[in-house]
Q: What sequence folds into this?
């Protein structure tokens, strides 16, 4: 082996190395059986800080984006946003926390409410929008952190014009940290959020003092509103029209339910009813929403009144950093620089939280669907992939904070709309008509907000659709490639089935594959005569019949349940599984393991064309069963002497 080959081998091993400890630390999801192990986890307010790294960090750019989008109407539009937060998003996600306390989030609610391929396609599409939100979180946070660095008076002369390189460098640093191994440290999140919120309270509090000390500021603002809008109703209508532009202030709720496995519950919590965790999860969501609501209203009010409108424009000193602008202007350069530093840190950490979220999506859904390539099981290739995507998005948006707001809002709103619909369907399914009507109205609000946002800023939809298309293409290709894996979690036989298998002594068992029709003795008698004639089964050898019912063809793997049924003198084994060829192969291997002798299975040729059969196999779990069964067996059992034998005739 040459040195180049050796280097490539080591690189491949490093990239594909599965670091289970790292994966465990970076992921929040859990199985229900793990709920007892979580009672020693963290108090809810500490986990809230982990959520707040993403949620509260939007204060770094939200006030500036709101002022740019709504102008003097910004505080009113922000008030509408807060009302939607407290009376729409919060009740909705409190319901999600109750129904999905194991870190599944709202996507799994829709997955459970729907079934078969529509469920899978919907989930994959939503993952595309989730990925959009996470990627834009990384790029937007990095761009805003770079803006805080470039506009800092001590660094401006040195870094002026370096917005793009600094943004790319921060993203590269994030990727490098995850390649090395990143632990989602709640301790760091608590420290960052506490300091960041405290400094924001100081900035907003000082700004409010200045506003109170200068009543003319409020007078000028109200005069602008009354001269622009003919009546209070016109003002409210304008605020309702413009508030969707502020929708990125709704981010953070999905993260709040995703991190629920980290929330300490009660010792009495059970797998099916972790009441303590659910209660504390609701406290987490409510407290975060209340804190953010107060900060959003306060920051929007003071930035609108104290900052000249031209400074919010692209290239202005308050663009993407409105509160930092006030910190420097009103509290001095030293405090302002300290504010810049903590803002840069929390924005970068928000990107880290988003990267961890991206790394959670793939192992949560795609492998279970059989829709992830082998290399996607390792974190490092995914980190490189996501980092590259973030580079492309940053370059496409020229590292501009305001330009990315629409794309970010699209991802956030798509997820919240789907969550609202999931909660609404859940209420109606549980007979809660009153709540169902209320959540229907909330769903309509989020649908309206999404439509307005997409109409005004369609680039977010374009990016999301690119993600959706990429995920669907990769997922379908992976599913096709992996279709001939065994795809059975285990095989379970009832007592009758076991009796049928063990009563024939040392002879190899011979199974005739049959499609169940009438299920009477005539069907099996005629089938046996036909197959014995076509495939030359020895006259004295007994046969059993094997029938397969497809349970859910969209599922990649499933438990194969086998029941033995006696129909007159005929012994019939009826199995249920995700796919006919894979189920037959799994059953035959189980028979081989039980009896110690490879069994034989007998088929008739299929009359459909190859393309139609291929589609039937992928979509319906059927298709040209004999060669597919043989291929599944060939891959599962390399030793031909131990492999069950497939016969085809007719």
A:
């Amino acid at each position: 082996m040459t040195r180049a080959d050796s280097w490539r081998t080591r690189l491949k091993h490093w990239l594909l190395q599965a670091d289970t400890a790292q994966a465990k630390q970076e992921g929040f999801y859990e199985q229900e059986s793990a709920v007892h192990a979580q009672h020693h986890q963290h108090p809810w307010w500490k986990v809230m800080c982990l959520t707040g790294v993403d949620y509260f960090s939007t204060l770094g750019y939200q006030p500036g984006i709101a002022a740019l989008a709504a102008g003097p109407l910004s505080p009113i539009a922000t008030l509408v946003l807060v009302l939607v937060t407290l009376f729409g998003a919060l009740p909705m996600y409190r319901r999600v926390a109750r129904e999905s306390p194991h870190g599944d989030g709202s996507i799994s609610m829709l997955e459970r409410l729907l079934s078969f391929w529509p469920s899978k396609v919907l989930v994959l599409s939503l993952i595309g929008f989730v990925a959009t939100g996470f990627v834009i979180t990384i790029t937007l946070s990095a761009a805003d952190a770079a803006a805080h660095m470039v506009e800092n008076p001590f660094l401006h002369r040195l870094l002026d014009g370096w917005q793009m390189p600094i943004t790319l460098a921060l993203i590269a640093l994030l990727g490098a940290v995850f390649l090395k191994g990143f632990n989602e440290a709640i301790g760091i999140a608590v420290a960052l959020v506490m300091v960041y919120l405290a400094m924001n309270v100081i900035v907003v509090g000082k700004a409010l003092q200045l506003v109170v000390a200068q009543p003319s500021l409020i007078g000028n603002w109200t005069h602008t509103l009354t001269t622009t809008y003919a009546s209070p109703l016109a003002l409210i209508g304008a605020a309702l029209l413009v508030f969707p532009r502020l929708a990125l202030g709704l981010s953070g709720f999905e993260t709040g339910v995703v991190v629920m496995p980290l929330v300490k519950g009660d010792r009495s919590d059970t797998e099916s009813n972790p009441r303590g965790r659910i209660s504390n999860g609701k406290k987490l969501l409510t407290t975060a929403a209340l804190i953010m609501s107060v900060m959003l209203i306060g920051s929007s009010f003071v930035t609108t009144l104290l900052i000249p409108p031209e400074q919010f424009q692209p290239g202005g000193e308050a663009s993407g950093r409105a509160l930092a602008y006030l910190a420097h202007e009103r509290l001095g350069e030293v405090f302002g620089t300290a504010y810049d530093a903590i803002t840069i840190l929390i924005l970068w950490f928000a990107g880290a939280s988003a990267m961890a979220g991206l790394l959670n999506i793939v192992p949560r859904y795609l492998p279970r669907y059989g829709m992830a390539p082998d290399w996607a099981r390792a974190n490092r290739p995914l980190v490189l992939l996501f980092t590259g995507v973030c580079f492309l998005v940053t370059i496409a948006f020229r590292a501009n904070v305001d330009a990315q707001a629409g794309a970010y809002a699209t991802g956030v709103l798509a997820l919240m709309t789907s969550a609202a619909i999931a909660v609404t369907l859940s209420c109606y399914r549980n007979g809660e008509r009153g709540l169902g009507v209320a959540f229907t109205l909330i769903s309509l609000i989020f649908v309206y907000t999404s439509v307005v946002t997409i109409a005004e800023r369609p680039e977010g939809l374009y990016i999301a659709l690119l993600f959706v298309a990429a995920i669907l293409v990769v997922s379908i290709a992976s599913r096709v490639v992996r279709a001939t894996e065994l795809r059975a979690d285990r095989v379970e036989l009832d007592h009758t089935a076991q009796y049928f298998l063990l009563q024939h002594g040392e002879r190899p068992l011979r199974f005739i594959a049959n499609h169940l029709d009438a299920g009477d003795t005539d069907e099996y008698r005629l089938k046996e005569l036909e197959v014995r004639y076509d495939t030359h089964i020895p006259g004295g050898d007994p046969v059993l019949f094997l029938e397969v019912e497809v349970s859910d063809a969209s599922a990649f793997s499933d438990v194969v349940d086998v029941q033995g049924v006696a129909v007159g003198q005929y012994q019939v084994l009826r199995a249920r599984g995700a796919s006919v060829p894979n189920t037959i192969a799994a059953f035959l291997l189980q028979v081989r393991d039980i009896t110690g002798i490879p069994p034989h299975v007998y088929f008739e040729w299929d009359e459909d064309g190859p393309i139609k059969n291929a589609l039937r196999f992928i979509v319906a779990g059927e298709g040209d069963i004999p060669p597919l069964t043989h291929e599944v067996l060939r891959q599962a059992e390399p030793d031909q002497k131990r492999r069950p034998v497939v016969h085809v005739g007719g």
About this structure: Confidence is low (pLDDT under 50) at residues 19-40. The CA atoms of residues 67 and 184 lie 33 Å apart.
